[in-house]
Amino acid sequence: MHVIEAKGFKIPIIGLGTWTLHGRDCARLTEQAIRIGYRHIDTAQMYDNECEVGEGVRASGKRNEVMVTTKVQPTMLAPLDLERSVKESLARLRLDVIDLLLIHWPNPRVPLSETLGAMAKMRREGYARAIGVSNFTMALLDEANKLCSEPLVCNQVECHPYLDQDKVIAACRRHGMAMVAYSPVARGGVKGDKLLERIGEVHKKTATQVCLRWLTQQRIAVIPRTSKIERLQENFTIFDFRLSDTEMKKIAGLARRGGRLVDWSYSPDWD
After folding, report:
1. Are 241 and 213 in contact (CB under 8 A)?
2. CA 18 and chain centroid, separation
3. How far apart are CA 61 and CA 233, in angstroms?
4. What is each CA distance from 178 to 15, 49, 51, in whole angstroms?
């Protein structure tokens, strides 16, 4: 299994994102992904599907091999709210422990020191094996790593060829953190990309597979979401080829202004 190690914690380099997946489909896709070989499943309190994700993980019979991530929503970052919400997440997942617990979005209305204190407590008390953050900028990463008494192992952010995230990648590396890419295929936007298709023809791969390979070859973990079982296999079959340095540079050249897809009113000031 291809993994990235950060501060002694291993993160499988490819996972299943479950945003917008619900009901039986969510449980079935989660179980099927694990059967194919996925060992990293990503959910969040905001997705309202922790029950189904947990069901799929348990049904796979491979709970002990799978890293399950969930994320605390921004309205729950005050310490008592955070602790309560994490215990509720565990109850919904019906798992013994959350493998990786993240702050989903920063919330400037709650002091980061208080939130991180509660996150560290969740790890110390055994509710989470590891903790990290999501949607954190360079400045927030610097602040969080100074404030947190327990190691922060990753930053999960939007990352794909159309969005230049070099600054955040460098900040993660500086802090010894893994980078996990959500929307790694730009919500399906890479399909039909002429450059990615041309490179794909050389390697007998799809544009999507080339894109995922471009990220994982940089040691960035990816969590593509799909609602189709056949896509699970396509997204997973990316380790039997290698992109050349020239191909890597050409793909990096696709970054453009306005390439960001996920930007809410409560987003931080992006780098």
Report:
1. yes
2. 10
3. 19
4. 14, 25, 27
Is residue 159 within 8 A of residue 136, CB to CB? The reply is no
* Rounded Cα–Cα distance for residues 49 and 41 (Å): 12
| pTM over the 0.85 mark | yes
How many Cβ atoms are within 10 Å of 20's Cβ, its own excluded? 11
| pLDDT value, residue 119 | 98
Comparing C-alpha atoms, which of 214, 216, 219, 220 is closest to residue 190?
214
**Distance (Å, whole) CA 123 – CA 111:** 19
Taking the mean position of all CA atoms in its chain, how far away is CA 146? 23
Of 117, 121, 169, which Cα lies nearest the Cα of 141? 169
Catalytic residues: 47
**Beta-strand runs (E) in 85-192:** 98-103, 128-134, 152-158, 178-182
Say if residue 1's pLDDT is above 90.
Answer: no
Contact 223, 15 (CB under 8 A): yes
Nearest to 206 by CA among 178, 230, 227, 223: 230
Kindly report, residue by residue over 144-202, the tens digit of the pLDDT: 999 999 999 999 999 999 999 999 999 999 999 999 999 999 999 999 999 999 999 99
- If you count them, how many residues does the chain have? 271
d(CA 134, CA 156): 4
Domains parsed from the chain with CATH numbers? 3-188+220-231 (3.20.20.100)
Please check whether residue 21 is in contact with residue 195, taking contact to mean a CB–CB distance below 8 angstroms.
no
> Do 88 and 70 form a contact (C-beta atoms < 8 A)?
no
